[in-house]
Amino acid sequence: MMSTEIPQLHVMFLPFLGLGHMIPTLDMAKLFGARGVKTTIVTTPVNSPVFSKATQRISKDLGVQIGIKIIKFPCVEVGLPDGCENVDTLPKGGTNTEMTINFFKAISMLQEPVEQLLSECKPNCLVADMFFTWANESASKFGIPRLFFNGSCSFSLCVPAACMIHEPHKHVSSDSELFLVPGLPGDIKFTRKQFPEFMLSNDDNNEFAKLLKKTNEEDLKSYGVVVNSFYELEPTYADYCRNILGKKAWHIGPVGLCNRNFEDKAWRGKQSSIDEHECLKWLSSKKRDSVVYICFGTLAEFSSAQLIEIALGIEASGQDFIWVVRKNKKDEDGNEDWLPEGFEKRIEGKGFIIRGWAPQVLILEHESIGGMVTHCGWNSTLEGVTAGVPMVTWPLFADQFYNEKLVTQVLKIGVSVGVEERRNMGFFAKREAIEKALKEIMVGDEAEEMKKRAKSLGLMARRAVEDGGSSCSDLNALIQELSSMQPLNQ
């Protein structure tokens, strides 16, 4: 008897092993699954709880089943501590350390087990993160398209692509001289100091620079790119991607808006370090648009001296605030050496410090939040846009300088704290600069206009993912295209 079962599109997701990449991948799988697509996420033992707990809730609430396949991560084989399977937990962080290079060696060794899964599961498409530089080769072995995911926006795809074509950074007399990105709309300027190292390095021995060059080459070879952004946010650059760079690109974000209930928002990534209700109760005691939210992502490791400077800058600004600090260092007497003496007593009632992981989406959605300070990682930037809040930008590395330009120069919904060069955690911002930037977005002459623009973009973001919205339509078009490419699995 012939099977009467309807053929089902099967998409396999391969996220990079870092929370900033795993969280939006889970959201993408949820979006595909809600449209009847069979979805499978590939991960490792230590990282699997991030997905398994969420998929249990998704199955219960939406009836959407997301499969999880677990492969071994070769920590010990490459010289990493046993169980070190996530870039966020690498000892001493940074992009040029031996541990980081070893981590990416381990990533390169995942090709064989992933291909074994492709052989067993027979998906119709592989959505693989940028750092799996072998993913195009693996997908082609099985005759399926590989979609590229780099976790950023169209603007941040356009800048390095345009610079690789025109090489304007090679025609300046110093690292601090501004140069125009040729052909890119908006009069966008950078210095060499603000560019990722792989764009500048001619050193064949720089492993990380070689890796990032390879990711860009593989991007061009992939079937297309899925972008966690929405067309209305950056139409000029979405069009540039498609029409000038010739990329097949689908803007399907903000993917985080698929999380509708309290628990999904509160536990996005992992459980927060505080009681969410306590935090929201504190926020509810504040006036609308009066609190600034300060957070620098999962990889920031500021010195105690810098944290003290941040604390004093916040205090001098006079603004109510929530500050997320991923540091809990104490001296011999049990005092935290990163806080000015008497700081917490002085800011009692005005400030709320979260040590560890914060329920960021819930906080940003609260009506009392009027602005945020961000490292410009794309997840946080997009969450700020979606919440409709102006931003103080403080980029640290990677694409964060690109995202800063988008926020401050293109969208005009933020101000820079003044970072002039990519030095990982090496830039030191003084309290006066922090105070000035906070006042500018909260009570400055341009604050009201920035807030209006930010809130308008927040409304656009929500409309984009609704039925008939641009992101909803792009996702439906992508699924339809994938479904029409080849016979689906029975």
UniProtKB/TrEMBL annotation:
It holds the Pfam family UDPGT. PROSITE patterns: UDPGT. GO terms for molecular function: UDP-glucosyltransferase activity. Keywords: Glycosyltransferase, Transferase. SUPFAM superfamilies: UDP-Glycosyltransferase/glycogen phosphorylase (SSF53756). It comes from the Eukaryota. Its EC number is 2.4.1.-. PANTHER family: GLYCOSYLTRANSFERASE, SCOPOLETIN GLUCOSYLTRANSFERASE-LIKE. Belongs to the UDP-glycosyltransferase family. This is Glycosyltransferase. It comes from Acer negundo (Box elder).
